[in-house]
Design goal:
alpha/beta
């Protein structure tokens, strides 16, 4: 797919104001700026194939720079780089030698990230070679721990100097990434499989010469079942993230640890805190499911796990995959609402002292099939652009996230200037309740980490922010109503 160029708000202000005005239609005395926030969370951007394809990489990197991205999440799929991955018989090769793998374009991507001083989260995951599974017939069933350890040794030797943090497996509580998920008696099976893979992967990185590898556990999806009636429902179901966490850490439902299990050497817990069309405030009825609006569940679970000496205390949470879907996805919201909800979700993460990182998945939406069932699952529409490369309101909002929240008789405003380097100033605009035109509410100074907070008593219908970079590039976000 061909990436579009950078779209400024109408070569100055015009285009941004058109977008802002369009959203303002849907929306139906300045306070003293608060002290700059002390919270900080890197945001891992996952642009998918636009970055890995050589033909689109340069334009994508330039676009990410202008958007203000400073960190990448990349998936390393074992099957894609291993020799003879579809053979049930293991080929003769040194699995710890990086030269025996076909790494594709990954080395070039990591070299570019290193040149730009971008942090990289590398998630090593399935599908796996058939010869590395217990059945030798598929690419997901019970991957061999020893084979995985050797693969991680090769990966560590090849990329150890370019990867900031590692993660083991993508959504291991999902049937599409690891099998089996449940045992025949209805209890989760994938957590114990994952525990073996984690220890194997960690030891593999140690064997690669990385003395203290920074490795995240989890990368769990937000929804699933805590148990199933295998006779009536079968076992082909996803496991809920907290049931998965307990199983991987040898914890009972009361968070009591089995004696034979030691502490897992994880540097953090990675989670994909997606929500549904109800937005960031959605609370799943299953207490073992964790969305962006119920991060407290994960914090409590990790506290209890630490108390049981299953993980270290105050284990940080990395929200390594996240986005707000837009319609026609069955979990989607209108594109004009996406920008508002995405910022609210990021603010929730920013306010939580345990959250160490947030994320954006992806740059561009998945293509929508010409013929699809109404309300059916249509991939991910969480991008800043449509599948055709047309900017959505989030494209303009992502560099300048904005949250406006009613607070007493006034408003609390929070935002960030992602493309900035150091302290800068941003203009906050308001559309008054009594009609009229957009006017300047305040010029706010950010902190060194580019965040800002403002409290205002001026009533408004919508707000938006405007920033001019040192190179005179104009950034202008869409209109945002008060939540």
């Amino acid at each position: 797919m061909r990436p579009t160029g950078w779209h400024l708000p109408g070569s100055g202000r015009r285009r941004g104001l058109i977008v802002a005005a369009a959203v303002a239609i849907a929306c139906g005395a300045v306070g003293t700026p608060a002290a700059s926030a002390s919270n900080w969370q890197p945001v891992f951007f996952e642009p998918n194939s636009l970055l890995t394809e050589p033909s689109t990489r340069a334009a994508t990197v330039a676009q990410l720079q202008r958007l203000g991205a400073h960190a990448l999440r990349i998936l390393l799929t074992w099957k894609n780089v291993a020799p003879r991955p579809n053979s049930p018989t293991r080929p003769h090769f040194d699995a710890t030698d990086p030269a025996d793998y076909e790494w594709g374009t990954l080395p070039s991507v990591l070299e570019e990230a290193k040149r730009l001083h971008w942090s990289v989260l590398l998630t090593v995951t399935s599908p796996v070679p058939k010869w590395a599974t217990s059945t030798h017939r598929d690419n997901l069933t019970r991957p061999n721990d020893r084979e995985f350890a050797e693969f991680m040794t090769a990966a560590g030797r090849e990329f150890g100097s370019e990867v900031s943090v590692w993660a083991i497996w993508n959504e291991p509580n999902q049937v599409g990434w690891l099998l089996p998920q449940f045992n025949s008696n209805g209890t989760p099976a994938s957590p114990s499989i994952y525990r073996g893979l984690f220890f194997a992967g960690y030891s593999g990185l140690r064997s690669a010469g990385i003395a203290r590898p920074k490795v995240l556990m989890g990368e769990t999806a937000p929804f699933g079942n805590s148990e199933v009636d295998a006779r009536r429902e079968g076992t082909f179901h996803n496991v809920s993230p907290l049931a998965f966490l307990r199983g991987a850490l040898c914890l009972s439902s009361q968070y009591q640890k089995a004696r034979q299990c030691g502490e897992l050497p994880a540097s953090g817990y990675a989670h994909h805190a997606y929500t549904n069309a109800q937005g960031p405030s959605y609370i799943p009825p299953n207490p073992d499911e964790v969305t962006i609006g119920t991060l407290g569940r994960l914090v409590q679970a990790l506290n209890l796990a630490a108390r049981a000496h299953a993980v270290r205390s105050n284990l940080p949470i990395y929200l390594t995959e996240f986005g707000i879907n837009t319609r026609p996805n069955s979990l989607g919201v209108p594109p004009a609402t996406q920008a508002e909800q995405d910022a609210i979700a990021e603010h929730i993460a920013w306010e939580n002292p345990r959250v160490a990182a947030f994320s954006q998945y992806a740059l561009r939406d998945d293509p929508i099939p010409r013929h699809h069932a109404p309300g059916g699952w249509i991939g991910f529409q969480t991008g800043l652009e449509t599948a055709a490369g047309t900017p959505k309101p989030l494209f303009f909002a992502w560099p300048l996230p904005l949250v406006v929240r009613r607070e007493g008789h006034g408003y609390y405003l929070w935002g960030q200037v992602r493309p900035a380097h150091g302290v800068t100033h941003v203009q906050v605009m308001v559309l008054p309740k009594r009609g009229g035109h957009w006017r300047l509410l305040a010029t706010v100074q950010t902190g060194a980490l580019h965040y800002w907070v403002l409290r205002s008593s001026v009533p408004g219908v919508c707000w938006h922010v405007r920033w001019v970079s040192p190179s005179h590039r104009v950034y202008e976000g869409p209109a945002i109503p008060a939540s």
